[in-house]
Amino acid sequence: MDNPPVDIWKEFERNVVSHSAAHHIVAIAELLESRGYARVSDVAKVLNITRGSASLTLKALKQRGLVEEDENRFLRLSRAGEGIARAILGKRALIRRFFTNVLGVPEGTAEVDSCKIEHLVGPGTMQRLDHYLKFLESQDRVVQSFKEAWRHFSASIEDAPEAPARSPAMGTDAQADLSIEA
Fold first, then answer.
1. What is the pTM of this model?
2. Which of 146, 152, 162, 179 is the 20 to 30 A CA-CA neighbour of 52?
3. H runs (alpha helix) in 48-78
C-alpha cells in the first residue's frame, strides 16, 4: 500500500472537484443536453438547492475555468469542464452497469449508489472494472458457467430462511444503514 491507512482519507482532497461541484457540472451538462441551455436557477432546481447555494458553487467553478457564463447569464462548460462531466458520467454509468448487470442491484438503488462512489474511485480501478465487465459480457464458455454459478449462489442466499445478513469482510451487519439522519 502506498499510503499508511491513516492518510488514505487525504486522497479525497486530491479530487479535481468536490462531490458537490461535480453535481453542479453534471447538472449543467445534462441541462445543455436536454434543453440546450442552463442558467443558475435551472441548476438550483435540478439539484433541489437554493439559487444562492448554486451561485456560490458556480462562482468557484467559474473562477477555476470549468464553467463559463455569457452576457445573457447562460452557463456552459469549458473544455475542461466538459471533460470532467464526461469522466463523472462515464464512471457513474460503469459502476451502475456493474451493480445492475453483475450484482443484480435494482436500477434505482444502483443509480444512487453509483453516484455516491463515482468520485471516490480512481481511473486505474475504473479501467480494471471496465475490462472485468467486458470479460463478463463475453460469450466465453467459462464466463457463462461462472455467471450461471453466481445466479444459483445468489438465489440460494436470498432464498435462505432468516439467513443472517452478516459479512465477514465487514465484520458487522452487512445491511446496516450508515447514513446520517438530519
1. 0.77
2. 179
3. 51-63
